[in-house]
Amino acid sequence: MPRSLKKGPYVDEKLIKKIVDKKPGQGGVVKTWARRSQIAPEMVGFTFGVHNGKDHIEVFVTEEMVGHRLGEFSPTKKFYRHGGKMQKELEQKKKEAEIAAAKAAKTTTDTKK
Predict the structure, then answer these.
(1) Residue 69 — φ and ψ, nearest 5°?
(2) Number of alpha helices (DSSP H) and beta strands (DSSP E) in the chain
(3) Suppose 74 and one of 57, 66, 67, 78 were both cysteines; which one would form an S-S bond, judging by CB atoms 3.0 to 4.6 Å apart?
């Protein structure tokens, strides 16, 4: 459920203090752990280092991001892949096709010389 309109957007006070004296694009990355803070129009142009539980991921704020939360742009889980026997077979066929294409390209360049 979105935050009530009468309450306004939630932006961490410490985060606002960090950017109030700076100009966009100046001063490097602003590190923050406040993933729940909404992106305000004053934040456009800044680069934030949003913590994902392990390290800080750099997020450059644009106008389209206003109203979203900082945590949306710093995923906490890494997608590895769906797998299994079928996936391995498909990857093996793909590798074989790439090798065959490379050999065919090499033979065509050798015959032209």
Answers:
(1) -95, 150
(2) 2, 3
(3) 57
What tens digit of pLDDT does each residue of 40-60 get?
888 899 999 999 999 999 999
Q: Report in angstroms the alpha-carbon separations of 43 from 14, 39, 106.
A: 13, 6, 52
Range of the domain at 26: 13-73
Number of domains in the chain: 2
Q: Which residues pair with 10 in a beta bridge?
A: none
CATH number of the domain residue 51 falls in: 3.30.860.10
**Token pair listed for 2:** 């979105």
What is the rounded distance in angstroms from the CA atom of residue 66 to the CA atom of residue 48?
14
Whether residues 69 and 43 fall in one domain: yes
What integer pLDDT is reported at residue 2 of this predicted model?
A: 67
Element (H, E) at 47: strand 47-51
Of 47, 39, 42, 89, the C-alpha closest to 65 is 39
**How far from chain centre, in Å, is Cα 58?**
8
CA distance 40 to 10: 9
